[in-house]
């Protein structure tokens, strides 16, 4: 009887009832006029979430990984060089994808817990006087370590080196939860998905593509059919899809955008910061450490937390699930066994976060962690109650 | 964005997704054979929850109040004397209903916070040598004060006085959450509803009627049509309803019974006790007092908690709702302003309860209650983690 | 695998997906401010459907029968005389209800298939010089016979006799499907329900009460508690309910009203007329006869159709259900075995109606009725295609 | 108000309420043990629908097109020769996909309306003595023309030529609706999707892969990452997914399989034949012709129907949608303007089919087709009523 507990994995996120209902729709004809009327505004409104006026939103029925594949295959050719920094599981997986597509991947190895190494990017780009590097790939929010990278900084580094490479950004676990500025940061391709900040079911990759990236498409030779931008854009232009569209997700997306705009994107970001900060206060109260190396790197959507020496983070997350029916993120890759993660993105409230903190405290106590019951909860409570929006406070 | 927070009102309760889906059914023909096949087992299985083999389950599309009206009008005649103790809002409202139906209500006034006064019932019944008292009306779980009454004790009192009155019990907020023994306690009419322990939408009164009460029906002269037992039983016998049945609730009831039996009724009761006990530990840690006067009276479905002298419980519940989006029960009747209530019945987990405790702690802190943040949560955590079922513990 | 077939019973009606979703809502606190904000506009908007500005809308968690009981018990006293015409099962059941409440029912017996006998009403009222008749009860749409009565005519008769009796109208199966004019017809109490024209689940009686009827309430002595207008109005005034409200139905009602207003009430009525007329064309093509005696009596929400001499209508409806999984209305009361009914109200389209006609044709053929396959369908098709709204035609 | 009308497009199909509810599930942790317990049996049970014991079921969050891409990229290398016959839009699109992946496609051009040319396949394979052809690609059910191909025949041709090529079959619009025999026909890769016979939302490609195809995977050099069989199988083996799984569809799939097995696969196929045959009787009664050239080619899931000379099929489908709110399939590719399609697969009943036939009749009449109203309906009615299963008849 635990189906009402929230999940604290960093996606897929808790789905609000309103969005579950929005996706609960009977089949309609995707070739009929009313589909066009539904879909076109969804694409248009999604641009606001990417903060772009010049970019093009393209979706595919797939996951974020499919989105990466689309980004790479539509703009690059076999043998092309790309520059990537590896500082977590997801940056690692993107590297792997590039390599398997026959790209020449120049990897900057960074410690897990660090973010995009702006200076080293700048050096590498400056050194590439022949402009062999065709794209710089950056993970905005490394879900494995709870690290947010400085995309504006990466863009500055590229500009400083006057480098024409494309800037591709994985914002799967940041978009619609943390500030993202496609146009200001001059991002060329941003890749996200339906199951994180959009609070929907998994199943739709959501990309935004700059005019520059669209131009690159014309000469790109990597094969792509299912993920072909041109096929999709051509079909979208007449209101359709090159194959059967994921209708339920599109209706869900329409409602998700409404929810985000009703709350206000800035309020959405502020809420994520507050919830994240509450978690960080709890971590501090427990005497534990975040994997993220410094406050400027702290992610507002997921916190990766080292367990104390001598403890196994896998045992902790397994116990929290078995004993209390609550899912937390396990440690991935290098962090396996060493850290657990608390996802705090999407449809979430102070109250839900506190229930997660209370649960993991119990689980830690059960496994003899040196953690005082209620300590993390109290720290988060104190922060939550004092940081409430003035408006809400006045209403009290 | 708080639609995922649980409610902590003592009903209607949080509806599990499984039951929301079970009630999400298209219209079917209630005069067709498959309705019969659905409805008859629901009535039969509901008897198990009342713990009866001889009673008859009767439902009406209405609320618990409608159930009371049905109980009274089907078995009594104008001017009949009934014996009731008043110790809370719901016992009070039942008295009012009887008086407005022209019954002669003999009231035993008791302090709020106490339960059914077994001894005084016995005296009153013993004094009624002419057996003018036709029914004894008892509220099993007084939702306004969080008090559980001793129905077995009332039955003993009746037997000690060799009194033939009917025993009618309001178990609206106890059935399917706390142990109820229709047959063992020789209850004649038990009245409940769909929106508490059954975890469904509001809209169905659920009664169980003994053969003795059915016999009384033959001479009862209070008018009833919509709530007529005979019309309903006659229609039910051929699989129907005397008017349009609440189909969605009946399908929901079928699934609710499945859930209860899957968990096991004894486990359901044990879970409610654990959750209630966790709340009580928190209350104690806060230095607050329950309205219920002694441990034997503690309800496992709702706790009414006095706020400290000088504080207004209405301000507290209003603030918890405005600031944190969480509903708690207000103080009702005599308790208005003096006590708030935490409902802990229906579909609820340790984790959900902790989120409620954490919330009310913040609200109390905001309003300068002398309560330490995290203190109640920690007390409940400690209890929850040490009282988990051995089986679950082994699995960890 | 027939759960996608529509039902053709005269209520509960097919529930549009949009309304199923609107009722699929988690528990919220009915004592919290947002319930008030939801419920008050629902009551206000429902007045538009009754076409009243002076009436008061009152709802109860129950069925239409509960609504009748509320109408009678809130305005009359034991022994009061009421005038009713009996011309079908539902007018009969209302009479029975009055008698069981100890009213003195003056019955005008009419043949089934006829409607409210305006002239005989006038005579009876004129004869009642002492104004002993306190209320005239009329069934606007007799669901058993598919007969619509002339409420404006009844009002004229009352006025002609200068009779001060209350006019109570059962519009359960007509409201929100056929034109209803509370104010123009000076109806004092109109009784309807959630499961017909409002296309919702069963479970809410919906009444509209005139100021005159509210005044009568002050002296009415029939007992009522669950169905008490004053308790309900008092609670409603502060946004609440005297007991737990049927939250899901109230949210459903809000969406139902939106749907009705989006289509436009006049368009809703026109659609019902078209669908009904299509059915009548089919009946004519089959060589069968309606129970309703003349075109001015034809109901636009349900058609009762005589089977040919020597056939059993129960066998027909049973066969349609068993063989094709489609529910039609059985013949009720005097019509049992002699007539079957096609409900054509609520959420219904030309296309759905044609599927019902095609089905019953097959069932009739299977049972050797002298009916040509496709004949009724063709007659309805011809009517539907030529009577489409010009706007829709232009768009084609 | 037409949201209750069925669709008659050949997929996505009408979703039964039961499956909509099964997909209406809150996020659960896909890395938690209960996901494993859900997913493994789904893969296992899906094998029964493919009629295989040796094949491996592999799913991807995508559409059927993604499934094709997976089939090709996991087993072939750039420059590999494949043999395909083109006889419709979907065989054409598969050819295009192969060419864009750099395969050497040997195309057998066939008239639209014909099926897989078994003899010409045999000749081509016999001629390929060097076994350069690595795969034969066949569309089992060509959705554009309503043509079913003889896969057993193709297998015989391959065997007759003793050719070792892989046999890949597109069964997107046939699986779970028409008989499919993976093992008996020695199919190496079968490609389907969630939104046709499985009656679910679009979003999951469902493949079945033979051991021989799995072996080919080891040497295949076409790049694939998102669609990589090995990544998926490895993750599946431990109960997981290489990326976020489409949880809702997996729960839907579990329920869909239950529904199919409850009805019995043979009964499902028989039902589809009956419904298709009813449509064909109507087409005949209208004096129209199917695109499919001969009865052995008739598809049981979709009928493509030529409009008479001088009429435009696009105007017909557009009118049916605009005037009656019903979607039919448009003519695709060569058939655009010349033929319309009636999809009759998935969750469908006699009654629903009749509503579609009645609708298109009206639309044809509106556009002055030489078609008699009711004629097609009557032909289908006659067939439906006489071909009902004896059991159902006996029950009548």
Automatic annotation (TrEMBL), chains A, B, C, D:
<feature type="domain" description="Aminotransferase class V">
    <location>
        <begin position="29"/>
        <end position="293"/>
    </location>
</feature>
<keyword id="KW-0560">Oxidoreductase</keyword>
<dbReference type="InterPro" id="IPR020578">
    <property type="entry name" value="Aminotrans_V_PyrdxlP_BS"/>
</dbReference>
<protein>
    <submittedName>
        <fullName>Soluble hydrogenase 42 kDa subunit</fullName>
        <ecNumber>1.12.-.-</ecNumber>
    </submittedName>
</protein>
<dbReference type="InterPro" id="IPR054863">
    <property type="entry name" value="AspGlyoxATase"/>
</dbReference>
<dbReference type="InterPro" id="IPR024169">
    <property type="entry name" value="SP_NH2Trfase/AEP_transaminase"/>
</dbReference>
<comment type="similarity">
    <text>Belongs to the class-V pyridoxal-phosphate-dependent aminotransferase family.</text>
</comment>
<keyword id="KW-0663">Pyridoxal phosphate</keyword>
<keyword id="KW-0808">Transferase</keyword>
<dbReference type="InterPro" id="IPR000192">
    <property type="entry name" value="Aminotrans_V_dom"/>
</dbReference>
<dbReference type="GO" id="GO:0008453">
    <property type="term" value="F:alanine-glyoxylate transaminase activity"/>
</dbReference>
<feature type="modified residue" description="N6-(pyridoxal phosphate)lysine">
    <location>
        <position position="196"/>
    </location>
</feature>
<dbReference type="InterPro" id="IPR015421">
    <property type="entry name" value="PyrdxlP-dep_Trfase_major"/>
</dbReference>
<dbReference type="GO" id="GO:0004760">
    <property type="term" value="F:L-serine-pyruvate transaminase activity"/>
</dbReference>
<keyword id="KW-0032">Aminotransferase</keyword>
<dbReference type="InterPro" id="IPR015422">
    <property type="entry name" value="PyrdxlP-dep_Trfase_small"/>
</dbReference>
<dbReference type="InterPro" id="IPR015424">
    <property type="entry name" value="PyrdxlP-dep_Trfase"/>
</dbReference>
<dbReference type="Pfam" id="PF00266">
    <property type="entry name" value="Aminotran_5"/>
</dbReference>
<dbReference type="GO" id="GO:0019265">
    <property type="term" value="P:glycine biosynthetic process, by transamination of glyoxylate"/>
</dbReference>
<dbReference type="GO" id="GO:0016491">
    <property type="term" value="F:oxidoreductase activity"/>
</dbReference>
<feature type="binding site">
    <location>
        <position position="341"/>
    </location>
    <ligand>
        <name>substrate</name>
    </ligand>
</feature>
